[in-house]
Structure formats: C-alpha cells, structure tokens
Amino acid sequence: MNKTVHRNFWLKDTFSALIFILPISLVVGFFIYAFSLEEIKTPNKLVDQNEVSTTVNIEKKTPTTMPTNIGITTTNTTKKMFDIVPNVAIEVPIKKLNTTLTNNNNNNLTTTLTNLPPMGKLLEVKFKNEHYEVYIVDLNTDNIELFLNDDNGKPLTNFKNLKAYIKQQGKTLSFATNGGMFHATKKPVGLYRAKSKNSFPKDFYALNKKNDTGNFFLQPNGVFAVTNDNRIILKETIAFEKVKNQTIYATQSGPMLVIDGKIHPKFNKSSKNTNIRSGVGYINSKTAVFILSKTPVTFYDFASLFKDEYKCNNALYLDGVISQMYYPTTSSSKNQDFAVMIGVSPKK
After folding, report:
1. pLDDT > 90: what percent of the chain?
2. What is the value of pTM for the model shown?
3. Quick one: which H or E segment has residue 166?
C-alpha cells in the first residue's frame, strides 16, 4: 500500500513540475529565437551606387566571351574573359603635350601639338596603369581611306585581304584598324561613304539616326571622315550631316567619347564596367590618333586618354572586343572578320 501511494505521489509531483516549467521554457525559447533572427544578415545586393536606369545591349557579335557592359553604369553586370593582345614594337611614355587652340574655317577649335610622339609608328603607352596601342596619322605624309568591298563587290572582311587589295593598287598598307560596328551580315550599322567605281564619293550605307539600344545608339554618336581636300572631320551625327557632301570617306559609330573638349556626359567616372575598346580622336584637321586598349577599361578612362593626353577636341568609339590594329612588323592582329576597315598608306 505504501509503495503504491509513493508512486502516485511521485507521478503527481512530476506532472506539476512539467506544467510549471513548460510555459517558462516556451517563453524563453521564443525570446532566444527572436534574438537569433536579429543576428541573421541577408547578403547585400551588389549594385553600383551610380546605377542608372538605362539598360544597353552591346557587342552581340562578340566572338569570344567578354564583358557585355559599356563604360556607363548599366543594370547589366555580366563578367566574361578576354584575349590579351601581344606586345608591340615601340613603348613610349605618355608626355604632357604642348598645345595651342586656334579657330579653323568651320569655327571649330583645332589643337596644334608641338611635341607629339612619333607619327607613323605603332606605339605602346601606359595610362592610369592600363596599356594601349596608339597610332598617330599625319595627312601631310599619309592617306586615310575606308574599305568595305573589293572592285567586284566582294567583302574584304580582314586585314590580310585588305593588304593584298592595297598592293594590287600599287600602294603599301602601313596601318589598319576596324572602322565601326556592323551586323552579322557584315553590313555597317551606320553611314559608310567611300569612292565608287567612277571615283565619286557615294553613301553605300545611309546615315543612321534611329533611337535604339546599344553602344552605337548611345547619343550622341558621330562620324569620322576625310574631306575632298584631304582634311579630317570628326563630328556628332547631326552636325556631320551639314558637311557630309564635303567628304569622300566617312564611317559612323557611337558613342562619341569626347564632345567639344568634354567627356561624354553619360560616362561615369566611378563605373566598374570595363571592356576592350577602340576609338579615333581628332587632334587637328591633318592629324588623327587611333587607340586600342590592350585590357578592359571603362569608357570614362578611355575617353580621358583622348582628352587629357592627346588633347582631342572630339573622339569617337569604334568598337569593342573584336577590335584590332594591323601594323607590318607586329603580330598583334588576328584573322578577325570586320566590315568597314580604315587603312593608312604613305603618300606617293
């Protein structure tokens, strides 16, 4: 009898204790859980602090994987790989150029440089810890021409064919680079103007003034051209339209890098978006500079090289990762296909 009473008392006492402890445990557990939630950190979304609403689609023709972002801040942050261009023959330091500004007949500021680096040589320069290939052309000693097809209307497509075509004409190709963006069909996106069979200038592809997405359509875009009297013109598309009939060669691309001595307003100095980039800058009516980055750079830094170091009043973006330069004594150019090509040959 005593054993039964003792067992019943123990069970009753244990049950009472559980009833007392359980609510307290639930309350304590709730506070512990709530406190733990305070300590959980949700990973921050990696967003450029200067992100703008514009989303652009560019370089759809990229043959190798590369960043698909341009140098303004966009909502696209895809990162890819790139090909390194081999070293070129001559390496020169960037020097501050002595300049004077004068007005030409078109009331445009013209830069006169008194200590330019060697012209007619493919140079390797370093700017903001990035390396570039640079080629400066002087129309007093060289000719600039644009090429797309041979005399039979067959696309030339690459530097090898261009070199052979130039040789057939009794000339020597001393420099070449791709001359603007094109569709998969190898048709230029914008204006291509050159000599026709009767030697008169002709618009083989019309000036493109559409609003669309992509580098080409980042306004303002522009046109690089050579006039009938052997002067260089580089202007925004709308401004170029007024002087188009003065030109014998012209290629349209975009965006403008430098506009009237100022960097394109949509480029962000702090952008993290980089890519291989090529472009052409207007130094004066007889002098142009072609630049190709050897590693991915931002649009802002690329434009700064034209503006700050070569004193270009205007400069134009030509293309991205597919861009190359041909120079006879280097092997930096691959057998890449292009549409419009810019060729330089010595005057006879």
Report:
1. 57
2. 0.71
3. helix 159-168
